[in-house]
Amino acid sequence: MQRWHYLxxxxxxxxxACGGPTTHEGTTLTPTLPTGASPAPATTPVATVxxxxxGAPRTATPAPTLRSCPIFPADNIWNRAIASLPVxxxxxxxxxxxxxxxxxxxxxxxxxxxxxxxxxxxxxxxxPVRFDYADESDPGPYPIPPNAPIEGGATSSxxxxxxxxxxxxxxxxxxxGAYPQADGSWHxxxxxxxxxxxxxxxxxxxxxxxxxxxxILPGLVRYDEVASGAIRHALRFTVxxxxxxxxxxxxxxxxxxxxxxxxxxxxxxxxxxFVITNFPSQDQVILAALQRYGMIVADNGSxxxxxxxxxxxxxxxxxxxxxxVPGSAFxxxxxxxxxxxxxxxxxx
Length: 348
What we know:
Mean pLDDT: 87
Number of helices: 5
Largest sheet: 6 strands, mixed
Distance between the termini: 74 Å
C-alpha cells in the first residue's frame, strides 16, 4: 500500500475516534459527501419547532409593577397595546369636541402640589372612612396613614385624591374629596378598593375615586417608569365635556346628553405618523406610550390634560415641551373587540 493510502486511513481513524465532525468557535465542520450520496441518519433526531396554530396566544408583555406588586395582570385592558386597533367611526366628532387646535398638557411636575401623589404602605393600621356616596363606595376601614399626601396639598379645594398602595396585599385604595379627621379617621366623597392581581371591574354604574369608575394610579405617568425608559400602560386624561354614558372599561358617567362629546372610557392614541424623535428622551418615553397604549377619558376637567404623579425629580422645562403636541395628532380607537366579558377588565 502506498504512503498516501496509509495517510488517508490514518485520518479516517482519527475522525471516527473523535465522534465525527469537529467544531471550532461554534462553527460545525462537516465532511464533504460524494455526489449523490446521502448522509447517515443521526443517532439523535433533530428537534423541530412546529409553527404556532392560528390564534395561539403570544407571550404577553409583563405587567407594570410598583414595589413588587403588579398594576393589574398583564392581560388587563390598561396594559394592552392598542396601536393596531381600528379608528373609531366617530373619531372626528369626538376630537372636534375636545379641540383639534388644543394641545397636550402634562398635569404634573416637580411642584409637590402639582400632580396626583400616592403613598406605598405595608402593614398599615386600618382606619374608618365615612363617604358622602356610600352606596357606590367600598366600605372601610382603609389603611391610610395620618400623613397621607393629598392631591393639591393639605389646604387644597380641588379633587383632593388620596391614593394608597398596600404592598403587603397588593391592594389599591383610592379616595376622592378626602379629608383627615381629628380622631384619625377620614371623610371622603367616594372611595374604591382594587385588588391589583385581579381583572375585576366595579359594578356597572358605580363611581370610584374617579368619575369614570376607573382606578387612578394605573393611569398615572410615574417618574420611575419614565426613568426606566418605558411606560407599559395607558394613561389617564381629562376632557371638559363628556356624554351621559360610558363604555367599557369605564363603569360610570358624569356628563351631558351631547352625543358629539366623548363617553367616559373612550380611548385615544397618538398617531403613528407623529414624529417624536425631536423631543427630549423623557418626553419620547411618554409619547411612545401614547402611540402604543394611548390614553383613557377618566374624568371631567381641562381638555387634553394627562395625569401624572407629583415628583420633585421631574424637569418642568422638558415636560413643557409636550405642550406642543396638538389635538389633531390624536385619533380615537375602537377597543370593543378586546372585551372578554363586560364585568371584567381582561382583554383579548
